[in-house]
Amino acid sequence: MAGTASITCNTGGTPDRENQEMKFRAIFRSVQPYISALAVIATAAALVFAIYFTELGMQWITFLGGVLVAAILAEATRVSRLEWIATRRSAQLSALKDKLEHQTQLRKRAEEAIALSRPRLQLIDDVLTTMVALIDAEGNCRYHNRAFMEWLHLRPDQIHGQHIRKILGSSVYQESATSVRQALDGHHVQYERMQKMPDGAVYRLLVEHIPQFGEDGKVSGFFMLIDDITSPGDVQLAGTNKPEEQPHAGSKDAAFIREGSPSQDSFVDSFSEQVIGQKDANHIKAAIEKGAFRLFCQLITPLPSGSSEPEHYEILVRLIEEEEGMMPPGAFFPLAEKYGLMPHLDRWVVQHVAEWASHLNPSDERQKNSLFFINLADATISDHSFPEFLQLTLMEYGVPGAALCFEIPSTELTLRPVAVAEFAQRVRQAGCQLAISGFGHDRISFDLIRGFRVEFLKIDGNIIFNILRDPVELAKIIAIDRVAKSIGVKTIAELVENEETIAKLREVGIDYAQGFGISRPRPLSE
């Protein structure tokens, strides 16, 4: 006990000694200038006394004079150093003040932007009938509006922060898992699905997955937009013979939004006016003409080991306002489609890709032989003046047409074979190559492709995603690859996400692969 008391006493005394030492150092620093000054004065007095009142020799006088000069120089150096420290501290304080003012201005602007965007956010959150949810890259919900919550009949804590599998249920998630991964791969996905409610009612939903990109150009998540496009005659309720007379369980009124209908156009106008602040074609055209877009690319790499084939890239386009988080991703493109401006946007993409390609190093053989895959809108394929624009653009920048490969959806080839064939013929005259995208999703004749002449078949990602667990899907890509090679067409697998899938595709003999397992999209400028 005595030892313990002694230790306690010693430990408690240490801070007192430290405090005393700190006080002593503070007092010493405060009197140090005076001590230095007194030392200089004393040395000067001793020198004067030695000269006038003693008989010391010249050597002692010289020595005392040197000491005096050294003391004066030391004091002057100390004062100069203090002035320099004071000047530096003043400059640092001034810089901190400027930085603080800059941060204050940024905060003020951010608060003003938030205040301006609050009505728009309120529109999306409380008024908009479209169901909206923001899903991050891990599959967790980071935002949802009231319509989304009411449709699912869940509490906010049952949605926010929860995984999409838990929110939608395992069966629904399995049906949409491929589309989710396509969105996280940077693709804008749109599809319809039938939803059966707990009361037995079946509704038709239009679902969109719009990827969201971060500042580094990588996909940070996606927006899920769900619209009820059920017609009154389409609703099927259990235990009733007149479904059209039944009220809609997921809607508060009878105004159903259909694609291409006047109500759909009204929705697009209202949404664009609230989110973008404009709803006319001039605003959209001005954004295209001023280059308010940013180009990204995703690597398409050859699969055979030791292959000498060059790497290719798919071009993706994003709106700068979407990158800055000022509007929901993809909100611009429905407006461009509505006003028939997608051909203008496609021309902007072709022009800027050609300009960028003109600065490539001509001595790099792999880079020189790389292809840039560009998706074309349906309206662009129908634009008879686009091939002429393409030829003039390639001539202007001195880029060979063989550097570009245009992707045409397999559905377009099936629905409009004559129009697509005419377009392809004119594009080939410019030296460009062609690819069929989404191949395998729907039935399409290989004879049609043989006559159509394409260089690449991009196998639909829904098939690729399931080849490791579904023998039928694996057999399908083996058959596609065998027939493609027999007609001299190379195959590209989309939505490749892991090494196991890459190994299986390499074993099958697929020529190229694209997806997060290969590379994430990044800015073309990099």
Q: Supply the number of helical segments.
A: 19
How far is the first residue's CA from the last residue's CA? 72 Å
Count the beta strands.
Answer: 14
Radius of gyration: 37 Å
| Portion in strands | 15-25%
Kindly state the mean pLDDT as a whole number? Answer: 76
Low-confidence blocks of residues: 1-12, 234-264, 325-329
For the largest beta-sheet, the strand count, sense and barrel status come to:
8 strands, mixed, barrel
Sheet with most strands: strand arrangement: 6-7-8-9-10-11-12-13
Brief account:
The chain is α/β, with parallel strands linked by helices and 526 residues long.
What key phrases describe this protein's structure?
526 residues, alpha/beta, 19 helices, 14 strands, elongated, disordered N terminus
